[in-house]
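Assess this one:

_____
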Amino acid sequence: MKILMFGRGVISTLYGWALEKAGNEVDFYVRPGRAADFGSSVDVDIRDGRASSKGKPVQENWPITLREDLEPDHDYDLIIVSVNHDQLDSAVDFLQPRVGGATILIFNNVWADPAAAISRLPREQVTWGFPGGGGGFDVSTLHGGIVRSIFLGDIDGSSRTDRHRVVRELFTDAEFSISDIADFRSWLWFHFILDAGIMVGWLRMGSFDALVRSRPALKEVVRLIREMIPVLTAKGGTSRFGAAAARFIPASVIGFAMQKLLTGDNLFTFIMTQAQNTGHNNYKAQADYPRDVLADARRLGVAVPRLEANEPAFR
């Protein structure tokens, strides 16, 4: 398959690398003038959590192909969009006259209504997913990792198309396992709230390490997530299992479980540590999550006193 990764960010590079290793042709679209900045290769220093690799370290110099233009008559089969949620509008604006016959995989957080966010694209060509990886760049070296599973979901019938099935087969052939999500709109919104709670804790404590070492801080993260769930339902989402757990399991119990997970010797902890050490999760990236949830809470008239009390940390 001929694949265009939209941008040369962390997720685009991780999954572009994995998909090319699986036998696909992968290029990266970058803004005009950026190809010279990025260079023609990436130093990969990651852990590969796919089925046959089981988290093994990978260190190599990977040659990549960058392009600064995209004509409407291109021959890409798939364009993978993985951008910060606040950059999705501009990505859609750029792609709208250039989609051609390609399938578009939206592969990132979304806090707007997903259908509205991509309404300028042909809906029948859009599929939805979410990665299981991360990290950050140290100059031209990518530090981080990918876990075995990715998420693919349904937005208004999008999973019942041949394009969705082709994307599913692409990732399966690349040794990823697939978690299928029936109500992806609600799943995305709950994941966004989860990230917002973690980012508040990270900002308050000053670092990811300090957050995960503090059980009281993790307990506060759980309470923040619990408080934000009504914002999700006010937006039209459905409270999922994770939301129910956050509501009814004591915050101290969930905080204890989070601490065990986030301080353990596992790939997820490694990925988060690399994101911290490379400065990938900078102040703006962290603050955008709680700021956007708070803005919608105020717009919808949902009381979030804990989040408001923490506003100085992300204002």
